[in-house]
Amino acid sequence: MNSAAITTRVPIADWRDFLALTKPRVMSLVVFTGLCGLLVAPVPIHPVLGFTAILCIALGAGAAAALNMWYEADLDAVMKRTRSRPLPAGRMDRQAALHFGVGLACFSVLLMGIATNWFAAAILAVSILFYVFVYTIWLKRRTPQNIVIGGAAGAFPPLIGWAAATGNFAALPLLLFALIFLWTPPHFWALSLFVRSDYEAAGVPMLPVVAGARATRVQILLYTLPMAAAAVAPWPLGLAGRLYGLAACGLSLFFLILALRVLANRASDPAGMKPEKQLFAFSILYLFAIFGALVLDRLA
Amino acid sequence: MIDEEEVRRRQRGRALVMAVLLGLFVILVYAVTIAKMGLALS
């Protein structure tokens, strides 16, 4: 054998490729909402067990992301936004991604069960399975409702954080679930409006591809209204205080104004979609700020 | 065709990261055990 080179058909992935497989940037929002669910729970949790619970939520989200990339390698290869990921770029073998995702999922669920309780572990398992089987495999390539129903997968972390601390459910974490569930469509549809050509090329039936920009802009506004109601609801229901209530009202009002600007926009070219880009960027800040305000309100 | 040195570098990197993660896992399991024992006793 030539000592200078190795002939191999299986790429040897770098550890950074495995890290990229977990979508660390998306994970930050998942971890933050899970942490907030844990912090606002009425039962204090031991710091070590709380840290382990958040670690498990992060690992579970990473596992779901890895399995998503394993299944969608063909789609990622044709989309500009995703073609440099480890699998479409040819830096990693598909089987390695599958083994990594399954292993990480099992590890996160078992560790959650051992460290906190099996109810939290069960919800974590359901969230991973929902993201992989319901969203990625079943819905994403079949229906423009993909992110509406699939959005539930991203809404689980506050429930898991709460369940890790208390071992049960309550009205507040269910409202937080509803908030993220209703936030997901405006967030992703704003993005899909200005990367529509990517989804079109990949054959993904996102709403702008199937129904057009106008219908998508109307739907963004229609989902913003119940989302704002879910965000504000903990205040009148007595589940959160005035600090949270005022923050939720202000942030939701600004979200609504941006959604109205998106509705008023007639541009079909991404270059003219400044309102959509602003809404997408603000939607991320919105969720961080809402959950941050809830924790501050609970600590105040 | 991958340069052997590059393959070895990636394998070393993965082995090192795995070793660090295993070490951290051992510490975590120890800490979780102590925390749960403390909760059980209190």
Please tell me about this protein's structure.
The complex is a heterodimer of chains A (300) and B (42). With 300 residues, chain A is mainly alpha-helical. Chain A has two domains: 14-167, UbiA prenyltransferase (Tetracycline Repressor, domain 2), CATH 1.10.357; 170-295. Chain A has 13 helices and one strand. Chain A has helices at residues 15-21, 24-39, 47-71, 73-78, 94-115, 118-139, 146-166, 171-194, 196-202, 207-211, 213-232, 242-264, 274-299; one strand at residues 5-6. In chain A, helix 2 (24-39) packs antiparallel against helix 3, helix 3 (47-71) runs parallel beside helix 6 and helix 12 (242-264) runs antiparallel to helix 13. The N and C termini of chain A lie far apart (69 Å). With 42 residues, chain B is mainly alpha-helical. Chain B has one domain. Chain B has one helix spanning 4-41; one strand spanning 2-3. The radius of gyration of chain B is 18 Å and the shape is rod-shaped. The chains are: A mainly alpha (300), B mainly alpha (42). Chains A and B meet through strand 1 and helix 3 of A and strand 1 and helix 1 of B.
Q: What attributes characterize this protein structure?
A:
heterodimer, A: 300 residues, mainly alpha, Tetracycline Repressor, domain 2, 2 domains, 13 helices, flat, disordered N terminus, B: 42 residues, 1 helix
- Say which CATH homologous superfamily of the largest domain in chain A is assigned: UbiA prenyltransferase
Please state the overall shape of chain B, judged from the principal axes of the Cα atoms.
rod-shaped
What is the C-alpha radius of gyration of chain B, as a whole number of Å? 18 Å
How many angstroms does the end-to-end distance of chain B come to?
A: 61 Å
* CATH class group of the largest domain in chain A: Mainly Alpha
Reported for the largest beta sheet of chain B, the result is:
none
How many DSSP-defined strands of chain B?
1
Could you list the spans of chain B in which at least 5 consecutive residues all have pLDDT below 50?
none
Structural category of chain B: mainly alpha
Seen as an oligomer or otherwise, the chain set is: heterodimer
Number of helices of chain A: 13
Largest sheet of chain A: none
CATH topology of the largest domain in chain A: Tetracycline Repressor, domain 2
How much of the sequence lies in strands of chain A comes to under 5%
Task: Write down the secondary-structure element order of chain A.
Answer: EHHHHHHHHHHHHH
Q: How many structural domains of chain B?
A: 1
Number of helices of chain B: 1
Question: If you compute it from the alpha carbons, what radius of gyration of chain A comes out, rounded to the nearest whole angstrom?
Answer: 20 Å
Mean pLDDT of chain B: 91
As for the number of domains of chain A, it is 2
Helix content of chain A: over 70%
